[in-house]
Amino acid sequence: MAGIACRIEEFRLVEGRLPESLGELGGELPRDPFNGEAFSYQFGEIAVYENVSYSVPRTGKDLEPIDMIYGYRLWSVGKNRQDDGGKFDDDDVILTVKIIR
Predict the structure, then answer these.
(1) How far apart are CA 79 and CA 12, in angstroms?
(2) Rounded distance, CA 55 to CA 60, Å?
(3) Are 37 and 83 in contact (CB under 8 A)?
(4) pLDDT 10s digit of each residue in the chain, 101 long?
């Protein structure tokens, strides 16, 4: 995911905006190792969720955002191979980047 984030930042510096999809980055991108598909991507106003202790199992479906930021989020479906929408839970692998405007 870090490599994709670097490609997004290169795109943003050249184009002056975030890509609307990962396809705009062009070329081959790493795939989600859990399902072999493209990583999920969201940009714009992004909800930020409180980090929840692994000792208190919760799913992303029952979390309320604690803040909104402008930026982007990349995420993997994780070992359960279910897309939980990039919300924190004990399974998904998530990278959220805040952009200062």
Answers:
(1) 31
(2) 15
(3) no
(4) 899 999 999 999 999 999 999 999 999 999 999 999 999 999 999 888 776 544 455 555 566 778 888 999 999 988 888 777 776 656 778 888 999 87
Q: How far is CA 70 from CA 16, 23, 83, in A?
A: 14, 21, 22
Q: Exposure pattern of 28-37 as b/e (b: 16+ CB <10 Å)?
A: eeeebebeee
From CA 67, how far away is CA 48, in angstroms rounded? 5
According to the model, what pLDDT value does residue 33 have? 92
Report the alpha-carbon distance of residue 76 to residue 41 in Å, rounded.
9
Domain ranges of the chain: 2-98
Cβ neighbour number for residue 27 with a 10 Å cutoff: 5
Taking alpha carbons only, the member of 74, 81, 86, 80 closest to residue 22 is 74
